[in-house]
Amino acid sequence: MPELIRSFVAVKMPGKTADELENFLAELRPLAKIRWVRRSQFHITLKFLGENTREVTENVKEALIPMKNFEPFTVELSYIGAFPNLSAPKVLWLSGDKGADELSKLSKKVNDVLYENAEIERDNKKFKAHLTLARLKDSYLPENLVRKLGEVPKISWLCDELVLMKSVLTPSGPIYSELM
């Protein structure tokens, strides 16, 4: 049976900006026993690819090469949200309005390029640019955490690169590494 590689296309947060977000999360982590993401996991997914063979993954890499250079734009994350919602959260995320249209267009372009050049199915669901902060099992946010979430700082950076990431699932959470 061929090795399957679980992967996704994303934009990553640069080091200095990741430091800012990590400092904010350091204030949040003691307020709730939920599964907070690690600094090494900070990214915005443009397209989740699931599990594919090495050959398909190589085709994806090849198809993405021309997309590596795109017009840089500013991304600013400034508010907290949740899937499905803040009343019954399963995933806590950070998003913003600045750069959201550009991220959406980039996601669509990735979808189109991979469909046309690597035979990867298009995503038909509406794209929502977000950076996952935590995952919850019991859908409960303590009141002190909810208050602190209202104090989220504006986190911004110049988005100028997309990456293909490999994701290995482990009991302590996913481990990501760059494939491209």
Quick one: overall form?
globular
Rg (CA only): 17 Å
**What is the distance, rounded to the nearest whole angstrom, between the alpha carbons of the first and last residues?**
25 Å
> Approximately how much beta-strand content do the residues carry?
25-35%
Helix content: 25-40%
The computed structural class is alpha+beta
Average pLDDT taken over every residue: 94
Biggest pleated sheet: 4 strands, antiparallel
N-to-C order of helices and strands? EHEEHEEEHEHEEE
Low-confidence stretches: none
Q: Numbering strands along the chain, what is their spatial order in the largest sheet?
A: 3-1-9-10
Task: Give an overview of the whole structure.
With about 180 residues, this protein is α+β, with helices and mostly antiparallel strands. Helices cover about 30% and strands about 30% of the residues. It is built from four helices and ten strands, in the order E-H-E-E-H-E-E-E-H-E-H-E-E-E. The chain has helices spanning about 15-30, 55-65, 100-120, 145-150; strands spanning about 5-10, 35, 45-55, 75, 80-85, 90-95, 130-135, 155-160, 165-170, 175-180. The strands form three sheets. A four-stranded antiparallel β-sheet has the order 3-1-9-10, with helices on one face. It has a four-stranded antiparallel β-sheet with strand order 2-7-6-5, with no helix packed on it. The mean pLDDT is about 95.
